[in-house]
């Protein structure tokens, strides 16, 4: 006696593939947009960024957009360290900072070790000195170095005239080689047609 099993037991039903969720699609789109934004900085944007970097100093960022608070330091300083609120904390809201810096710096500043996601601010601390004023200045100096180093890493140097001339020569040579290749290819085709007509 032969037992015939139903097809559903031999070939179990394969569940359909799950489609990407809307959240996943938005995540990919957001990353792609961020990458595209970084790759398409215009020459005018880069020129403005270079000019901004040249004039950058510790006073570039107005201090009225920043918040300073003090707490007790845990660093060196003897008995005085536990009695005086000498540790300075500088908070710089990105909402106020980003309009003042080149667009090319926006994403790196959000990725900085000083960035606090909860407050959407840069939070910089200093407790090197036993004096509040010295620690405040140290915080602003750290902010200045953060902006300067980030900008120096991201903003390319201006192309010299010699480099521009070299690029133009390479483009011209490439164009001439392409035209020569096309003429040679055309000549070969003409010779083949001529040979066939002679036959």
TrEMBL record:
Prokaryotic-type class I peptide chain release factors domain mapped to chain residues: 60-189
Gene3D superfamilies noted in UniProt: 3.30.160.20
One Pfam family this sequence matches: RF-1
A GO molecular-function descriptor: translation release factor activity, codon nonspecific
GO biological process, one term: mitochondrial translational termination
Residue spans of biased composition, Basic residues class: 180-199
Extent of the signal sequence: none
Gene Ontology CC terms, in alphabetical order: mitochondrial large ribosomal subunit
Biased composition (Basic and acidic residues): 161-179
Annotated region (Disordered), positions in chain: 156-199
Superkingdom assignment: Eukaryota
PANTHER family in UniProt: LARGE RIBOSOMAL SUBUNIT PROTEIN ML62 (PTHR11075:SF54), PEPTIDE CHAIN RELEASE FACTOR (PTHR11075)
Protein name: Prokaryotic-type class I peptide chain release factors domain-containing protein
Upper classification of the organism: Eukaryota, Fungi, Dikarya, Ascomycota, Pezizomycotina
């Amino acid at each position: 006696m032969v037992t015939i099993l139903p097809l559903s037991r031999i070939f179990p039903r394969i569940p359909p593939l799950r489609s990407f969720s809307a959240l996943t699609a938005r995540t990919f789109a957001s990353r792609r947009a961020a990458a595209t934004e970084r790759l398409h900085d215009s020459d005018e944007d880069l020129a403005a960024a270079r000019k901004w970097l040249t004039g950058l100093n510790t006073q570039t960022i107005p201090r009225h957009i920043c918040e300073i608070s003090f707490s007790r330091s845990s660093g060196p300083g003897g008995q005085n360290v536990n009695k005086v609120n000498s540790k300075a904390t500088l908070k710089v809201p990105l909402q106020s900072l980003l309009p003042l810096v080149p667009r090319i710096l926006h994403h790196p500043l959000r990725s900085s070790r000083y960035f606090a996601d909860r407050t959407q601010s840069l939070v910089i601390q200093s407790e090197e000195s036993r004096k509040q004023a010295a620690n405040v200045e140290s915080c602003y100096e750290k902010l200045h170095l953060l902006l300067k180093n980030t900008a120096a890493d991201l903003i390319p140097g201006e192309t010299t005239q010699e480099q521009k001339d070299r690029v133009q020569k390479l483009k011209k040579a490439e164009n001439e080689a392409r035209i020569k290749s096309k003429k040679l290819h055309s000549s070969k085709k003409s010779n083949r047609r001529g040979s066939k007509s002679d036959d």
